[in-house]
């Protein structure tokens, strides 16, 4: 009875992240921005609503909740978004700090989206790089839940 990987025992999250990241090349914020502007990448923000409300949005990025990602981006899926045009689409998954997005990109690879990758450092790296961030619709920085008050 052969069970793949069972002989090695459980894998911790750090080892799992390292393993899945070996399967593709991650991108830095400026590269993701340039690729999206050139029409060569689809930016997909998987952060949950509270983080988007707090920190803002990346203009032009698709917002897809993490629990819907595979259904919405599978080019063969019945619930796919119009942007999920084929397996050749270069998807850059963005979470808050670049951890959950790595697991999400690996999952997209399993669906055949071999150009899927994620943003090193996530949204926070994007913001730190000074790249465009839009305020959530109907919210100001002062109104955003958890907005810093010390500047």
Give an overview in words.
There is one protein chain. The chain has 151 residues and is of the alpha/beta class. The protein has helices at 13-21, 29-37, 49-55, 69-73, 100-110, 122-128, and strands spanning 42-45, 62-63, 91-94, 117-118. Strands 2-1-3-4 form a four-stranded parallel β-sheet, with helices on both faces.
Structural class: alpha/beta
- Give the number of helices: 6
Q: What level of helicity do the residues show?
A: 25-40%
Averaged pLDDT, please? 89
Unreliable parts: 1-5, 140-151
What share of the residues does DSSP label as strand, in percent?
A: 5-15%
Termini separation comes to 59 Å
Provide the gyration radius in Å.
17 Å
Overall shape = globular
Largest sheet: 4 strands, parallel
Number of strands: 4
Strand and helix order: HHEHEHEHEH
Spatial arrangement of strands, main beta sheet:
2-1-3-4
List the defining traits of the structure above.
151 residues, alpha/beta, four-stranded parallel sheet, 4 strands, disordered C terminus
Layout of helices and strands, plus pairs?
Blueprint: H1 13-21, H2 29-37, E1 42-45, H3 49-55, E2 62-63, H4 69-73, E3 91-94, H5 100-110, E4 117-118, H6 122-128
Parallel strand pairs: 1-2, 1-3, 3-4
Give a nutshell description of this structure.
This protein has helices at residues 13-21, 29-37, 49-55, 69-73, 100-110, 122-128; strands at residues 42-45, 62-63, 91-94, 117-118.
């Amino acid at each position: 009875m052969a069970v793949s990987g069972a002989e090695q025992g459980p894998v911790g999250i750090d080892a799992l992240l390292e393993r899945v990241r070996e399967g593709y090349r991650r991108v830095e914020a400026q590269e993701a921005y340039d690729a999206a502007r050139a029409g060569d990448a689809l930016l997909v923000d998987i952060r949950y609503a509270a983080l988007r409300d707090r920190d803002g949005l990346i203009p032009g990025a698709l917002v897809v909740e993490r629990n819907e990602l595979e259904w919405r981006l599978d080019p063969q899926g019945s619930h796919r978004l119009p942007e999920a045009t084929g397996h050749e689409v270069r998807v850059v998954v963005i979470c808050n700090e670049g951890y959950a997005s790595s697991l999400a990109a690996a999952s997209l690879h399993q669906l055949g989206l071999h150009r899927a990758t994620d943003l090193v450092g996530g949204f926070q790296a994007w913001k730190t790089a000074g790249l465009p961030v839009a305020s959530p619709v109907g919210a100001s920085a002062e109104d955003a839940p958890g907005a810093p008050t010390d500047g």
